[in-house]
Amino acid sequence: MAKHQFSSAAYERMQAEFDDLSTRGRFAVAEKIERAREMGDLKENGDYHAAKDEQGHMEGRIRQLEYLLENGEIVEPGRESEVQVGRLITIVYEGDSDDSAETYIVGHVEEKLEGFDIISPGSPLGTALLGEVVGSWVSYEAPSGELRVKILALGPT
After folding, report:
1. Residue 70 shares a structural domain with residue 114
2. Closest Cα partner for 28 from 63, 60, 55?
3. Strand runs labelled E in 2-144
4. Closest to 53 (Cα-Cα) out of 32, 68, 39
5. In total, how many domains does the chain have?
6. How many C-beta atoms lie closer than 10 Å to residue 57's C-beta?
7. For residue 78, which phi and psi values (nearest 5 degrees)?
8. CB-based contacts of 122: which residues, under 8 Å, 6+ apart?
9. 90 touches 153 (CB < 8 A)
10. In angstroms, rounded to a whole number, what is the distance separating the alpha carbons of residues 13 and 153?
11. Which of 34, 36, 129, 146 has its CB surrounded by the most CB atoms within 10 Å?
């Protein structure tokens, strides 16, 4: 199975979140459940059900992070002049003006950065962009047919 690829910054963020949730997070939820149990009847105890629901969501996130950390790999930064995982990229579609340019992060959904959408490196567009440089025109197959984009700029995340 192919490994998930992350920038070192995304991998470190996930590791920190995993460490926090699997220690402090579990203790905090356990305290909420204990306080809610002390209120009495559990059948109609909204605080208890909310705390148990929070516990379930948190445990799901812990398992997800654990899987990604175990099955992920850090992609070493390559040349600054080329598109790679964890890099900001500004593109414009053929026929659009540069004013219509869009900026994305290339990478796994865990590369998230406030204000930017993500292009998966495994998607047709992401695959076409990897390794390309500023000024390149890249073609990829979309459901509506072949599309072309121009790489206008690259930046760090």
Report:
1. no
2. 55
3. 4-6, 72-74, 88-93, 102-106, 117-119, 137-142
4. 32
5. 2
6. 11
7. -100, -150
8. none
9. yes
10. 25
11. 129
Q: Which residues span the domain enclosing 131? A: 88-155
> What separation in angstroms does the CA of 74 have from each of 71, 102, 111?
10, 26, 12
Give tens-digit pLDDT for 57-93: 999 999 999 999 999 888 877 777 889 888 899 999 9
Classified as helix, coil or strand, 113 is: strand
3-state SS class at 139 = strand
Output the six-digit token pair for 50: 């909310």
Sequence-ordered list of residues with C-beta below 8 angstroms from that of 134, at least 6 positions apart, any chain: 81, 151, 152, 153, 154
Please give the pLDDT value at position 1.
Answer: 41
Do both 103 and 128 map to the same domain?
yes
